[in-house]
Write a sequence for this structure.
């Protein structure tokens, strides 16, 4: 029997919570993120895990970190999350192209990797509410840079006992991403554009979360907040699964030998997806290098290069909008760990970030980052990666995956490292059709994004996904746009309080 895992804040709040309580809270009371008191080791060998389905692998991973869920509860959540809403039986297929293995994380209902965790989070959360005798209605409050929003909306739409409010940067997502959100059905859903960028949306959501007076007022009205962002540990734990699964799949197919290490490349914005890979490594998956790929908003690249995190820079709108982020929230969890699980040190860094927009870690902490490599790709390099993979290897990728592919190519040239490498492919190319078509030299400003999707399908032989077809002529249901200082008022208006 594995030891129970408890969760506490990266910033020092002394509350120790069970997994279900941490999932319900989303954010710690002091504004910190919940972290496990220890990272358990996988109980089965990689060879044993290699014989399991995605669902069974998920159980083997999640039972170790969500220890207060019963076997029955966890298996119920997993079986209802990873079902026919995914268009491939294996849930997360691996495709080989140009000397790397692309882990396709976009076969869910909203064609982005967020489905991997947001398909299960509503089940984990409603189960947690029952376990903890929650009487209030749970209000999921989320900021999105494009993909989390739709995946969260799809997961929580019409789930009894919940409401969901998504804020997104009005001018900072792709047309198809926006159409996916604003056409969302469900009486409990609300989508609001803000005049600002993703960092503004995320900062506004965190401010609402950490306002004790508002929390008390909400409670008096029968509501309580939770989060579907990757700050919620219930988002992060399911993401660990696909890194375990991809390693075991390579092992089963004889592409790597027993105990052979792999590298992982992740296009990174808020740092949750690559942190999940890091946790997978800590649980026993042999991962040698965590290659963090940034776009022109290269705050993480600079951090890994210098040890200084500095968000004081111009915010760049790119063709990979889900990575257009200057405050990578989940990096806080890594900072906490490399500081020796020291919440005082972490709180000090986060205070500096809030006050001065930057902080610098110690040399000792930097040494613990030797397994990380930071790289970035320009817009030109991103488009080049899309074109190269399609023209020379008949493999179609989106802009975010292209950032990762470009960074990996640079890493390989620079290091000579030929370790088997998994690249997290985070979205369908059809989510960013215009950029992909422009990269292929087939752009046409006279066409809308749906017409371009049809032309991309003709060109590539890859069918337009149902997630895109279903919103082509869908009614726009959410039209609210507010200034960034009006977010709290917009929440109250939707809740009628």
């Amino acid at each position: 029997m594995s030891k129970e895992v408890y969760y506490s804040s990266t910033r020092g709040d002394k509350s120790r919570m069970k997994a279900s309580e941490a999932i319900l809270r989303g954010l710690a009371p002091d504004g910190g993120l919940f972290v496990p008191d220890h990272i358990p080791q996988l109980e089965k060998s990689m060879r044993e895990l290699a014989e399991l389905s995605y669902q069974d692998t998920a159980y083997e991973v999640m039972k170790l970190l969500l220890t207060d869920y019963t076997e029955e509860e966890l298996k119920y959540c997993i079986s209802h999350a990873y079902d026919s809403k995914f268009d491939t039986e294996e849930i997360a297929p691996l495709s080989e192209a140009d000397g790397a293995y692309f882990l396709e994380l976009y076969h869910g209902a909203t064609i982005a990797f967020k489905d991997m965790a947001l398909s299960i989070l509503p089940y984990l959360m409603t189960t947690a509410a029952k376990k903890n005798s929650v009487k209030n209605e749970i209000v999921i409050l989320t900021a999105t840079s494009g993909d989390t929003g739709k995946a969260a909306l799809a997961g929580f739409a019409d789930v009894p006992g919940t409401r969901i409010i998504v804020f997104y940067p009005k001018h900072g997502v792709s047309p198809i991403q926006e159409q996916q959100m604003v056409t969302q059905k469900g009486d409990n859903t609300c989508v609001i554009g803000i005049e600002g960028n993703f960092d503004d949306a995320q900062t506004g959501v965190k401010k609402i979360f950490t306002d004790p007076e508002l929390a008390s007022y909400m409670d008096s009205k029968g509501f309580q907040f939770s989060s579907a962002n990757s700050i919620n540990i219930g988002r992060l734990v399911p993401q660990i699964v696909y890194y375990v699964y991809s390693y075991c799949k390579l092992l089963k197919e004889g592409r790597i030998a027993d105990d052979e290490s792999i590298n992982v490349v992740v296009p990174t914005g808020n740092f949750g997806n690559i942190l999940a890979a890091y946790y997978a490594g800590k649980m026993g998956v042999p991962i040698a290098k965590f290659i963090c790929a940034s776009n022109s908003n290269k705050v993480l690249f600079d951090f890994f290069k210098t040890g200084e995190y500095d968000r004081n820079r111009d915010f760049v709108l790119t063709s990979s909008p889900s990575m257009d982020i200057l405050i990578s929230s989940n990096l806080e969890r890594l900072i906490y760990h490399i500081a020796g699980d020291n919440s005082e040190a972490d709180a000090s860094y986060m205070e500096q970030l809030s006050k001065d927009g930057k902080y610098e870690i110690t040399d000792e902490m930097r040494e613990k980052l030797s397994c990380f490599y930071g790289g970035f790709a320009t817009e030109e390099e991103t488009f080049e990666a899309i074109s190269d993979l399609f023209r020379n290897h008949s493999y179609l990728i989106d802009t975010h995956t292209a950032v990762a592919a470009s960074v990996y190519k640079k890493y390989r040239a620079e290091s000579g490292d030929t370790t088997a490498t998994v690249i997290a492919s985070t979205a369908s190319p059809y989510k960013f059709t215009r950029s992909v078509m422009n990269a292929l030299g087939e752009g046409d400003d006279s066409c809308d994004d749906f017409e371009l999707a049809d032309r991309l399908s003709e060109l590539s032989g890859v069918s337009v996904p149902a997630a895109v077809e279903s919103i082509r002529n869908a009614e726009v249901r959410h039209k609210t746009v507010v200034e960034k200082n009006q977010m709290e008022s917009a929440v109250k208006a939707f809740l009628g309080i």
